Amino acid sequence: MGALFSFQYILIMIYYAMHKDRDTTYMTPNLNDIIAKLSPDQKSRIAQRAKQLIAEEMTLQALRKSLNKTQINLATLMGAQQFQISKWERQRDLPVSKVRELVEALGGNLKLIAEFPDQSPKEIVGLGDVR
After folding, report:
1. Sign of the C-alpha dihedral computed for residues 29, 18, 3 and 100 taken in this order
2. Which ranges constitute the DSSP H helices of the chain?
3. What is the H or E stretch that residue 113 is in?
4. Are residues 47 and 74 in the same domain?
5. Number of structural domains the chain divides into
6. For residues 42 and 17, what is the distance between their CA atoms, to the nearest angstrom?
7. Are residues 65 and 51 in the same domain?
8. Is the pLDDT of residue 48 over 60?
């Protein structure tokens, strides 16, 4: 999924969330039609929220880079070697405990949230704790 498609999808989802009380039985509108009907204030709020959502989705590598850390910096913080950081950043099935260790070494705190339809998000605790 390209960045443009993701941004368009986010815009549509935010638009529908902002207008959820209105009748949506009509045919799905074109994205350009939706954007054209928005006020400047709505466009600004949507753009701001879209940027927040896009910023929230990051790979481990993008997260590290956004914090201006190199693989060598992170390896030093973790007592690991650079090649291990590279491997972990490319790994698709990384244990939660390792993700927690990486995030904490970068100065963050890992939270695991489960989302279900028609329910508020639930934080999963205790998973990946190896302290």
Report:
1. negative
2. 3-18, 31-37, 40-56, 60-66, 71-78, 82-90, 96-105
3. strand 112-114
4. no
5. 2
6. 12
7. no
8. yes
Q: What is the mean pLDDT of the chain?
A: 80
pLDDT band at 3 (very low <50, low <70, confident <90, very high): very low
Contacts of residue 42, defined as CB under 8 A and 6 or more positions apart, other chains included, come to 18
Q: What CATH code is carried by the domain that includes residue 110?
A: 1.10.260.40
Half-sphere exposure of 74 (CA within 13 A, CB side): 29
Task: Please name the residue that has the structure tokens 């549509």.
Answer: 12
Tokens 């639930």 belong to residue:
122
What global pTM score does this model have? 0.55
Q: How many CB atoms lie within 10 A of CB 40?
A: 7
Last residue of a domain, one of 11, 39, 56: 56
pLDDT score, position 74? 96
- Does a structural domain hold residue 130? no
Query: Which tokens is 14 given?
Result: 């935010």
Q: Cα(29)–Cα(107) distance, rounded to whole angstroms?
A: 44
